[in-house]
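Field notebook, page 161. I keep forgetting to write these up properly, so this time I am using the form the group agreed on. The chain and the ligand, 7,8-dihydro-7,7-dimethyl-6-hydroxypterin, are recorded exactly as supplied. Prediction of the bound pose follows.
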Amino acid sequence: MLSHAYIGLGSNLDDPLDHVTRALRELDRLPLTRLAASSSCYASRPVGPQDQPDFINAVAHVETRLSPLSLLDQLQALEQRHARVRARHWGPRTLDLDLLLYDDRCLHHPRLRLPHPELGKRAFVVVPLHELAPRLALPGLGPVAGLPAWRSAGDLRALLP
Ligand code: ROI
């Protein structure tokens, strides 16, 4: 079965824009997976600890025949190929890939929660997601255009392609 998934990308170390744009191309090369669309890249101040560089974020829409957990395995392997370092919780990272949505599935698994539990609160996810899919309704959360994260959307700066 072909499924639609949305993936959040983030980086704030070692040329973050390069990590995010390369990761978008690499998503297209994952097994049984095709990049259907990607948002613009956005810059923002870190949410959480402020003593770290600004982030670059984007959202990708992929079509995949992988299960949610197989897709998660692939995303974690891709993070490792970007020499992901994570010195501390909520600290800087070279590449973060979050599986945000998988069709309209709700999942409570020890490794994976769908929709992503922070999705509705994070402007750096909601703004690029809305750019890609303005009419999307999120299971349990409602329309992407009405999420609480819009209150802090003013902090995001879209980068020209
Ligand atoms: N802040 C922003 N702006 N973008 C992120 O991707 C991001 N990722 C994180 C934390 C540290 C919570 N803050 C972030 O993991």
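OBSERVATIONS:
- Residues 42 and 158 are 4 Å apart (CA to CA).
- The pocket of 7,8-dihydro-7,7-dimethyl-6-hydroxypterin is lined by residues 10, 44, 46-48, 55, 57, 90, 96, 124 (CB under 6 Å).
FOLLOW-UP: compare against the apo run.
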